[in-house]
Amino acid sequence: MTATLESTEILDHTSELVKVEEKQVIYHPMDTNTWLPVGEEAQMISQWASMVAGSPYYQKEGGKAGIISKWLAARELGIPPMVALNGGLHYVQGQITISSTVMNGLIRKRGHSIQKIQHNDEICELKGERKDNKDTAHSIFTIQQAKKAQLIKPNSPWEKYPARMLFNRALSNLAKDLFPDCIGSAYVEGELDTVEMVATEITPPELSKEKALFIKKYDLLDEDSEMSQFIKRISDTLDQSVSVVIEDAAKNEETFLKSFNDYKAKRDKKISQD
């Protein structure tokens, strides 16, 4: 994928120069051990999000918080930032959704295949096959299922573009079953319109318990501890609440700890040099 930018140089999170030719950034997907940006990258994201948030379009997409959420999701999935911001990703009800075009592209970019068995205004049936182990799966979503879930409302995309919406839902189900490593935990566009699905697939009680255990394990009630200070630094840099940062850390504990240890090592090295 390529994204047109006016700048001539961009540094990714590993500080490796991204190639730029004729104002086209060749974007390399993230293969990162630091799931949360720190230092100069975090500051750059926050500053850039503040500038972009002034646009009326991006205000509708959650303002600065939505922009940062999109950027972080794009960073993990290997999606160019401007592709993510201009329709590739959406910020809905505090969750990130992926356009079916981008989801389809992420899967095919890994070499996996998706075949349409049948696709019209009544049904969409897809067959997927993984490149690595040749596992296959089928996904079917019908207009009857949409009606049963009360998705079809007057003047909604389901009423105007049923074939496209059936494809979106069939693709999302296939991706979750066969290609979860390609899409993470994101929903496909339009999926969060289903209140029942949100209620069954998002489980706040489990996250709250996980978060509580994380706080207890690392003694985060002590605001002066090194980890508490590290989390506060991330919170300030990304303009996110400490609670949100801790919840994300609890869900990605191993990678978060590596980021924390890397931060301490760099800090200690700088102190010793001084």
Can you walk through the features of this model?
It contains 14 helices and 9 strands. It starts with a strand and ends with a helix. The protein is elongated. With 274 residues, it is an alpha+beta fold.
Rg value: 21 Å
Helix vs. strand class: alpha+beta
Give the strand order, joined by hyphens, for the main sheet: 1-3-2
Strand content: 5-15%
Helix content: 40-55%
pLDDT averaged over residues: 75
Q: How would the global form be characterised? A: elongated
Number of helices: 14
Distance between the termini: 43 Å
Q: Which regions contain 5 or more consecutive residues with pLDDT less than 50?
A: 1-33, 195-207
Whole-number count of domains: 3
What is the H-and-E element order? EEEHHHHEEHEEEHHHHEHHHHH
Q: How many β strands by DSSP?
A: 9
Please describe the topology of this protein.
Elements (H helix, E strand, L loop, with lengths): L1 E3 L15 E2 L2 E3 L12 H14 L3 H4 L3 H15 L3 H8 E4 L2 E4 L1 H10 L3 E7 L3 E7 L6 E7 H6 L8 H4 L1 H17 L1 H4 L3 E2 L6 H7 L2 H14 L8 H13 L3 H10 L1 H21 L1
Parallel strand pairs: 5-9
Antiparallel strand pairs: 1-3, 2-3, 4-5, 6-7, 7-8
Which characteristics define this entry?
274 residues; alpha+beta; 3 domains; three-stranded antiparallel sheet; 14 helices; 9 strands; 14% strand; elongated; disordered N terminus
What is the compact description of this entry?
This protein has helices at residues 39-52, 56-59, 63-77, 81-88, 100-109, 143-148, 157-160, 162-178, 180-183, 195-201, 204-217, 226-238, 242-251, 253-273, and strands at residues 2-4, 20-21, 24-26, 89-92, 95-98, 113-119, 123-129, 136-142, 187-188.
